[in-house]
Predict the structure.
Amino acid sequence: MAAAARLVLRTASGAKVLRAGLGWLGAPIRVPHAAAHFTFHPDPVPTRHGPTQKMNLFQSITSALDNTLSSDPTAVIFGEDVAFGGVFRCTVGLRDKYGKDRVFNTPLCEQGIVGFGIGVAVAGATAIAEIQFADYIFPAFDQIVNEAAKYRYRSGNMFDCGNLTIRAPWGCVGHGSLYHSQSPEAFFAHCPGIKVVIPRSPVQAKGLLLSCIADKNPCIFFEPKILYRAAVEQVPTEPYLIPLSQAEVLQEGSDVTLVAWGTQVHVMKEVAAMAQEKLGVSCEVIDLQTILPWDTETVCKEECFLNLEAPIARVCGYDTPFPHIFEPFYIPDKWKCFDAVKRMINY
Amino acid sequence: MAALMRFGKLCRIKIRVIGQSSSFKGSPTCLLRRTFSIYGRLSQQTFDSPSDKPQFPGASAEFVDQLEFIQPNVISGIPVYRVMDRKGQIINPSEDPKLSKETVLKFYQKMTLLNTMDRILYESQRQGRISFYMTNYGEEGTHVGSAAALEPSDLVFGQYREAGVLMYRGFPLDLFMAQCYANADDLGKGRQMPVHYGSKELNFVTISSPLATQIPQAAGAAYAMKTLNSNRAVICYFGEGAASEGDAHAGFNFSATLECPIIFFCRNNGYAISTPTNEQYRGDGIAARGPGYGMMSIRVDGNDVFAVYNATREARRRAVAENQPFLIEAMTYRIGHHSTSDDSSAYRSVDEVNYWDKQDHPISRLRHYMTARGWWAEDEERSWRKQSRQLVMEAFEKAERRLKPRPEWLFTDVYDENPTGLQKQQEALQRHLEQYKEHYPLDLYDK
C-alpha cells in the first residue's frame, strides 16, 4: 500500500477519503482518522534574532540541537535511534557533523536513558536525552522524580543534574491510540525540582528548547508530534532563548480567558475567533508554555477567585486511556471548547 | 561492499566444554561444565562467505546439530579470588601487593575507626539521639580495599553501606556525625536521613535511598569523563539485592555498549534485609551476569582487603586504559542488622553471625597479617582502641551540641534559584511561625 499513489480528499465532515491508485481495492472509503482537529497558526516572522529560514517543527528542533553541539563541546545527544536521524527526524545529520561520540544510540531502555543522562550531567557535561514517545517515559519516572528532581536539594547543592534535558514527542496525532498519543505532563507537574515545557510552534520550540538546555535545572521538553511536519514558520537560524516560566498572552480579551499549551493553543485561537463571531464574546488566549514552574501571575492572580463570574471549565480528554478509533470523539476539539465558552457566559 | 564488510564484523566467543556430557540419564552428580571466555577481538568476516556459518547480525557462533540446553552452573560457580587465608597468611606470595607498613596500618586504622563509629552511632540511635543508622560490620574490607585502589579524583557512586570508602578518603568524623545528626554543619543541609553522606570535595556523590538508581547514573558519568578525556574512573557500589533492579541491568548494558571506564563493585553480603541470596537470584551470583553483558568480571573474597585491593586496582587501570566496564563481585557477610529498624535474629541464627564475626572478619585477618610482620601488637591495639574511641566520642559530643540548620534551608536548592511560588510559601511559613512559634522547636535550630 505504501507504494500506491493516494489522493486524499476532504469531505464536509472532515473525514479523509482515500482514493487508491489500485482500482481493484474498490471504491474510495471514508476513514475517521481525524482530518486535523486544528489549523496551525504561524506567528509573525521574528525580527529580533537575526536571519530566518523556513523550518517545520522537527527542523527547528534539529536547528536548536545543531546550535548546541556547535557551541558546547561537552554536549551529547542520545536515545533510541537518534544516530540515523531519529524516528521523527529531529537529529538528522548531527552524527555525521559532530561524530559518533556525541550523537549515539543507546540500548532500548528508558530508565537507562534517563539514569545515564543524569550521570552525564552530574559529571559536568550537557546531556540531551531523547525518549522516543512521551508514552514511554514511565520506566524513567523513578529516575526523573526520585533522582533528577531531588539531586540538588538532597545533596545540599553539592551535586546537581541541571545539565540534563529530556525531550519526547507528545500528544495526539490522529491515529496514535493508547501508546503514541499521551500527554503525561500532569504526572510531572507536581514534582519540585524539574521543569516541564511544551512549545506550540517551531519558533517557540527552538527558543524554549535552548532555554531548557541552558537552564541549570533538569528539564523535560515535550514536542507536539502532530506539529512536526504540519507547523511551518520562519525560524531564526542563530540560537536565541525564550524565557521559561513566562506564559504568553497571544491575544487579549475581556470576557473569557482560554489557557492552553502545545497543539491546543491553535484550537483555542480558533475558538476565540468563533466566540467573537458567533457569540460576540471577547476571549483572552494564553499559551502557558512552561507547565512547571508555571506562571501563576499571568494566568491567575490570587484574588481572581472572587472575581470569577463563572466556575473554571476544564476541557480535556475523558478519563479513559487514549483510544484509537474514537479519537475524534475523545479530544477537546474546538466545538467542545466553544460550547464551554457559551455555557460559561450564560452561567 | 565496504558497508557489507563492516556489517559482518563479529565478536569471537570461545566455548570450551569440559566434563562429561552423559548427564541426561538423570544422575544428580553429573554436570555439564562449560566455561565461556569472551575475547574482545573483532574479526572481519565477508558477508558472502562461502562457509556454512551463521550470518545473523545478532550473534557470533557456530552451528550445532545436537539439541542441548546450557546448564547454568551454580554448584561450582565462578571461583573466589583471594590473597590471604582466613588467618591472614599470604597464599601465593606473587599476589601480595606488598604495600608499605604505613599503608597497611592506614587500612587497619580506617577499618577499625569505622567499626568504632558504627558502634557508637548505632547505640546513639537506640538512645533516641539520632533517628536512624546503618552499620557496616563485616564489610569494612570491601570499602577500604577498593577505596585504596582508586585515585582521589575518581568519582564514587554508592548505595548506603560504603561509609568506609568516604572514611578512607579522609571525610572527617565531624561531618559523618553532622549528617547523622542533621545539624547545621551537615554538608547536605539536613535534608536526608542519616548515613546519606556526600562530599563534593572527596568525589563521593550523595547517597540516595532508592536502590540501584546510581548504577546507570554512574555509567553516564563515566561516559562523560571519557569524552572529557579526564583520565578519571567511576566506581559504583551496590548490594546483591539492588542488582535485581532494572536499573542495574540498564547500567551494565549501557556501560558495555557505550564503552565506559567504570568499575561496578557489588557487595554480596548474603542478605537484602531479610531476603537471603537464594531468594534473590537463581544464577551464579552477580559476577556470572557480567559476561552476559560483554563485561569483564571477577569474584573476590570481600573479607580479604588485599584481594579487593588487587582486583580494584587492576580493574581501574584497565577500565581507563581500555574504556570498558569491569564487574567485581566481592563476597562478604553482613554481620550487623540491615539497619536500626531491623532485628536480624528474626531470620538468621546467632551461630551463623558469630561464625563470620569470629572466624572470617576482614579486620582480624588484616591484624594477623600485621602481627605476623611485627607491625602491630597488643600495646598498639590497646592504645589505638582508646584513641579511636576518644576521637569518635569527641566528634559525637560536638555533633550533639550543635544546633540544627536554619529553617529557611527547607526552601533552598529545589532549583538553582527559588521560583516565585516557593518564595511565597517561604514567606507564608515565616508569618505562620511568628504567630504560632510556641508550637515549634525553634530553639533547636540555627537562626
